[in-house]
Every structure is written in C-alpha cells, then in structure tokens.
C-alpha cells in the first residue's frame, strides 16, 4: 500500500525529495503534473507529483495543489507531504502558507509540521531560525533572490505572515534531550491554538525524532530531509526498496547540456576531453532548417562510442551575455530549449533510450520532447540527482540541476549501466 503522497512545488524539488526517499529504501514514482488517470500504486511506497506552483499566483497554486492532493487521496495516499524549497522560497503573499492552509482544510487536520531542515545540505533550524550552511537564511544570499527574496530567517515570522494561524515552537533542548515529552508538548501547544509546529533540527537524528513524534499528522510540510526521515522510520521499507534500477546498457545514450551554470561548465569541459562532443551553433539553430537533422545524424554516427556523445549549448557567462545581448535572452533561451526538445524526440526514433540532461529548463524541454508523464526514481549519481526510468518504457533519464554533481558527473552516470 502506498504510504505517502508528496506534492512538490517545483520539478527539481520533486526529484530531490524522491531521491532522498529512495536512498532510505523506498520505491518512489514521480509524475509530471497531476495525472489524468488512476495509477496502480500497490508496490509503491510514495508517489510524488511535481507541480510548477512556487511562484505562480496564490489562487492558482492553491487550486493546483488541491487537485494533486485529491488525486493522491484517490490513489490511497491518506498521508501527504507538501514539499517546498529548503530555503522556504515564498513571499508574504505565499505560496507556502495559503497552500498549507488549503491542504489542512482538505485533509481535515488542525495541525501540521513546518520543517524545511535538510542537515545533509546544511539547512538547519535553531530557535526557530533557518540556517543555510551556518548562515542565517536572510544573510545566505537568498535575500537577493530575484523572485522570492528572503528577508527574515524566523520561520515563525515567515509562516505567520502568509497563513491564517499561529506557530508552535519546540526548541533544540526538548528535541535532543526530552524526546519522550514531545507528544505532551504538542498537545499543550495545540490547546493554546498552535497550528504549525516548528521544531529545531540540527542533524538527521533530530529529524528522525521529529518525524516520529508527528507520524500521526495526516499532513506534514517541508523539504527533502523530512522525506528521508519518514522513509527511514518505515520498518517495512526493506521489503520494497533498495532494488538497484536496471539501466540497460543496450541501446544508445546521449548527453544533452543546456545549463550554463559554473558547475555544468566544468562538467562539459571535463567530458569533452574524453568523449565525442558537439557545441551547438546558435546562429544555425535560428537560421538553418536543416541543422536539426545534421546534429541528429552526428549523434547517431557516434551512437556506439565507448562514452555517450555530448551535444551542448553550455557556455561561460561572458559568452552567454554577448549572445543574449545580440538575440534577446528570452528568445534565444526558448529557441535552444525547443531545439533540445526536438533533438531528443528525433533521437528516440533512432533508438536512443538513455538521456543525460543538464539544466532545469532544459530538462523541462526534453521531458516534453520525450512526452514523459511519469518516472520511477532509481539510484542517485549525485545527491538529489537520480537515474529515473520512464513509466512503462525501456527508457531512462537523468535530469541534472545546474549546480549539482561533481566534475565527472556525465561519465559517472554511465557507470550505472548493466549488461
Ligand atoms: N549558448 C547559449 N546562449 C544563450 N542561452 C543559452 C545558451 N545555452 C543555454 N542557454 C539557455 O540557458 C538556459 C539555462 O537554463 P537551465 O535551467 O536549463 O540551466 P540552469 O539554470 O543551469 O539549471 P537550474 O535551473 O537547474 O539551476 C536555458 O534556457 C538555455 O536554453
Ligand atoms: O529543497 C530544495 O532546496 C530543492 O529541492 C528545491 O526546492 C529546488 O528548487
């Protein structure tokens, strides 16, 4: 029986929590948006729905999240987790507070947990303040975020500004030294009208304590660490989880890199010294209708190389700046994404069954090109970046966030293939 339904407010956040739960031994399936049909979830521990609701208008975020919650409930997920960013990305209008309130009403619960802590990634909570690698959230760089600048670190302040109720705070001393008293503490604070419980969390042990004491809450909210703790506490997880995903070495693979982050630039530099590589010509993407076929044929010609061929648009920031000035940033981004989407589609027709993709937006475009509705989450190549198998297909995909993974990521991903 499925144990947990997860509603994630963005795509890389969805793969992040899915990967943490798989690491704890669960079998996890991820859907891109709310599926239109039912899913037979019998041997699945968690279903994750990836939405794009972090920064859209509040009423749309609420509506989308409620429809995800209703679908998950219909698949048997009585318990649900609302996944938002571990840096609590939101404004005083939302969307974390309003979505949480709406889900609480829908799932008919007077209390929930607010827990963005991910100790493995340096997200900790002390005296109710959120830290990012030892820095207060509002001094971590997040105060400059273009869409959701985080101007406070107090989770109480942040949550109460965008929701209808009060926070209940439980400090580190209680979590670490008096775990047996936590259940009573929750009852006392509930009687005092607390709705959103914020526990201090410094390490994974604290997360396990928090997950244990809130195991009866029908709804919890937070980030990937909470997913890990809930899965790790499940005594039956070994029955269904930790099966290595069989990624079939037969069939060809390709690396598609559209990310221009510092880390991806390093990964592309490293990989192009070892494998056949083709840098995309931006002018030809725009001007030459035969270019897609030319690039497809180049990839196909290298299909049986020892390492997968790589096609990349990745460039360092100073070159990107020039290209964007010349063509317009939005226009050129869109053209490159569409090119990757069409290339992926054309390579599938040519027998390619493994796609290693770099970049959040690029991943969205490739997912669309491959017409992916859902995927099973496999083993991670780097923290938060798992191999995935497309539902009901012999097709495998990695979607790498810009700054994730080590220098040898593209090569490392291919070490997971099996004969
Ligand atoms: N040479 C280029 N010139 C201009 N734009 C480019 C070039 N190469 C890639 N792009 C665009 O840059 C954007 C990169 O965004 P993407 O989300 O894929 O990567 P990222 O921002 O590094 O990843 P993440 O969002 O996961 O951190 C895409 O829209 C892509 O089309
Ligand atoms: O929680 C995080 O930090 C990430 O999963 C995320 O939400 C990326 O957008």
Automatic annotation (TrEMBL):
Gene3D superfamilies: Four-carbon acid sugar kinase, nucleotide binding domain, Putative sugar-binding, N-terminal domain
Keywords: ATP-binding, Carbohydrate metabolism, Kinase, Nucleotide-binding, Transferase
One Pfam family matching this protein: NBD_C
Entry superkingdom: Bacteria
Reaction(s) catalysed by this chain's protein: 3-dehydro-L-erythronate + ATP = 3-dehydro-4-O-phospho-L-erythronate + ADP + H(+); 3-dehydro-D-erythronate + ATP = 3-dehydro-4-O-phospho-D-erythronate + ADP + H(+)
Residue span, Four-carbon acid sugar kinase N-terminal domain: 4-229
InterPro entries attached to this UniProt entry: 4-carb_acid_sugar_kinase_N, 4-carb_acid_sugar_kinase_N_sf, NBD_C, NBD_C_sf, OtnK
Family: Belongs to the four-carbon acid sugar kinase family.
NCBIfam families: OxoTetrKin
Function: Catalyzes the ATP-dependent phosphorylation of 3-oxo-tetronate to 3-oxo-tetronate 4-phosphate.
Protein name: 3-oxo-tetronate kinase
């Amino acid at each position: 029986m499925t144990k947990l339904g997860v509603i994630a407010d963005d795509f890389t956040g969805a793969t992040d929590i899915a990967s943490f739960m798989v690491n704890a031994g669960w079998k996890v399936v991820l859907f891109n948006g709310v599926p239109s049909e039912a899913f037979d979830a019998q041997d699945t521990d968690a279903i994750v729905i990836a939405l794009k609701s972090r920064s859209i208008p509040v009423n749309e975020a609420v509506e989308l999240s409620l429809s995800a919650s209703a679908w998950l409930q219909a698949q048997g997920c009585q318990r649900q987790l609302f996944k938002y960013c571990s840096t609590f990305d939101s404004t005083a209008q939302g969307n974390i507070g309003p979505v949480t309130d709406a889900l609480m009403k829908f799932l008919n619960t007077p209390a929930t947990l607010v827990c963005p802590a991910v100790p493995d990634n340096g997200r900790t909570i002390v005296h109710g303040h959120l830290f990012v690698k030892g820095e207060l959230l509002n001094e971590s760089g997040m105060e400059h975020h273009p869409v959701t600048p985080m101007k406070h670190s107090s989770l109480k302040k942040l949550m109460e500004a965008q929701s209808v109720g009060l926070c209940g705070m439980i400090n580190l001393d209680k979590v670490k030294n008096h775990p047996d008293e936590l259940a009573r503490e929750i009852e006392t604070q509930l009687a005092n009208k607390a709705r959103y419980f914020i526990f201090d969390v410094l390490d994974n042990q604290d997360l396990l304590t928090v997950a244990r004491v809130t195991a009866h809450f029908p709804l919890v909210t937070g980030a990937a660490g909470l997913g890990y703790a809930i899965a790790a506490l499940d005594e039956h997880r070994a029955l269904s989880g930790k099966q290595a995903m069989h990624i079939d070495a037969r069939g060809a693979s390709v690396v598609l890199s559209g990310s221009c982050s510092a880390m991806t630039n390093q990964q592309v530099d490293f990989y192009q010294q070892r494998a056949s590589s083709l840098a995309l010509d931006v002018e030809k993407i725009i001007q030459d209708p035969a270019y897609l076929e030319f690039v497809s044929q180049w990839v196909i010609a290298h299909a049986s190389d020892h390492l997968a061929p790589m096609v990349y648009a990745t460039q360092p920031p100073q070159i990107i700046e020039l290209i964007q000035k010349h063509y317009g940033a939005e226009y050129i981004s869109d053209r490159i994404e569409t090119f990757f989407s069409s290339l992926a589609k054309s390579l599938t027709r040519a027998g390619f069954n493994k796609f290693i993709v770099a970049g959040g937006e690029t991943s969205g475009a490739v997912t669309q090109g491959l017409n992916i509705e859902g995927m099973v989450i496999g083993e991670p190549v780097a923290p938060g970046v798992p191999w995935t198998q497309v539902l009901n297909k012999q097709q495998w995909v990695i979607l790498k966030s810009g700054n994730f993974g080590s220098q040898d990521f593209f090569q490392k991903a291919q070490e997971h293939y099996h004969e």
